[in-house]
Amino acid sequence: MSxxxxxxxxxxxxxxxxxxxxARIGFHDRFSTNQMPWQRWxxxxxxxxxxxxxxxxxxxxxxxxADNLERVPAGWQITVTDISPGMLAGAQGVFEAAQRRVETLxxxxxxxxxxxxxxxxAVANHMLYHVKERAAAIAELRRVVRPGGTLxxxxxxxxxxxxxxxxIARHQPDALAYPHGSGVFGLENGAEQLLACFERVxxxxxxxxxxxxxxxxxxxxxxxxxxxxxxxEGALEAIRAEVTERIARDGTLTVTKATGLFxxx
Length: 265
Prior knowledge:
Layout: H1 7-14, H2 19-31, H3 38-45, E1 53-57, H4 63-66, E2 77-82, H5 85-97, E3 103-106, E4 119-125, H6 134-144, E5 145-156, H7 162-171, H8 181-185, H9 190-194, E6 201-206, E7 209-212, H10 215-223, H11 226-229, H12 233-250, E8 253-256, E9 259-264
């Protein structure tokens, strides 16, 4: 089992707090070329009534809501869950700062503590590839979403951040293949998994790339998950040297992104 599907590791190390996730989100915030940020775009895809009951599983630090609070209908009843109490505390702070009521629960998506048909909409934003019991998680999401409701499940494809994957492979050949997620639940293979429980699954692509002019930002991005992938300090130094040379020569480093959203009903 990969560390990126190890519940204990994710809860106690990688996602014990929001620090690592925020480092990666910050990289995309700073260097992405799409002028519509991911969280704003993803929120725009949600089609729900004004009095909808909304569930987000694996909510992390609550960026989907932090970036869209002024756009959330007053009638939405929002519940957010995560396996990490530290992450959930960050999400709770987002809502408290806005004086917005929300239910927060530490919960495993494969074992959700809600009744059948409890929600009009569920959101799984870049998290199902971390779930070892993925079939059970998808079945649980189908169970708690009412008939006629919708699941929005975001992930990425095989080409996502491939240039960073190549950097890691060159300098740490024994590292876990990067990025991890597309192999287990990606744009190329996620639909068939979702169709085991949902009748209709469509994918909406989010066009984007990253153009970086700061070598240290690349190194910090990789370092935020270095222990998960098995990237040592020596490899990070070698990556720093290569990226510094390439940006000095070319001005920027362009990194491919392949991201999208499954819409399931």
